[in-house]
Amino acid sequence: MDGGGNNLYHFLHLSSDGNLFIFANRDSILFNYQQNRVVKTFPRIPGGGSRNYPSSGSSVILPLDHQDRFQKVEVMVCGGAASGAYEAAARGRFLPALSSCGRMVITGNNHIWKMENMPRPRTMHDMLILPTGHILIINGARRGCAGWQNAATPSLRPYLYNPKKSRGQRFTVLKATRIARMYHSSALLLPDGRVLVSGGNPYNTYTFSNVAYPTELRLQAFVPDYMDRQFNDLRPGNVTVEYEGHSSGVAYGTAFTIHFWLGRRPSKDMEYSVYAPPFTTHSISMNQRLLKLRCGNCVFGKIFTCIFIRSMNVFIQITREEN
């Protein structure tokens, strides 16, 4: 990879073929960590600027689907900083961040970055996969880069990205927050579907006064539209899971049964997804992925779901230890 800097906190995703996708600055590879071998070198993402710290864009794997046995793995990279942004910030000049996003399928043999633009430039943001399969882009700044006092103009409006829509129609601008969340901010999805938003400290000590962007200790809950009360009768309650022959959880390649209560009978379009919550820092949500599973034998109040997760390359199984 290009050794020109802006390659810290690189993006790393585990592909369903067992190899690692590694992205740093503008370049990316597929790496076989068991054989210590580069399997594939991907095309450089188009456009200038950089995507990794201190330029600090963000990245996700788009939702994986049982219909192709989770074999189509598509990576999305958004935002970052302009070339020279770090040096310019040291002189008190904050360059506009990158507004471009790139999507590329890293499995198969046809690897092309498909580019599109966010509504506005953004750096130091978080990208979260919501239960709907949409991508939430939240936090960050519109000018500068990561580091101590290296950015200005906070990005107060989150973006909602729908991967299934046509290009040019995928982004929706959401209601703004009043709290700047730039360097050292973070966001993560909560079990109830809300998003916990926290942090923001562009100083090397806690600084609360006489500065443009003071150290931020307040927490916020971002409430997506699917949490609206009009959907209360479609939100499952009293959820229990029956494991078949495995008291400690669901095993790879096995089925399990879910019992739940709904306020009204669902339509025939019923989906079941499983989500791995991330460890989040510096605009990177590690281990984050969402899988759309196959389900059958659906009756009112109960779904029998078959999981076609054959290995930990698709979804890491967390083993519960008994005391």
TrEMBL record:
One Pfam family matching this protein: GO-like_E_set
InterPro entries: Gal_Oxase/kelch_b-propeller, Gal_Oxidase_central_sf, Glyoxal_oxidase_N, GO-like_E_set, Ig-like_fold, Ig_E-set
Annotated protein name in UniProt: Galactose oxidase-like Early set domain-containing protein
Residue span(s) of domain Glyoxal oxidase N-terminal: 4-226
Source organism of this protein record: Gossypium barbadense
Keyword vocabulary terms for this entry: Signal
Domain of life of the native organism: Eukaryota
Boundaries of every Galactose oxidase-like Early set domain copy: 247-296
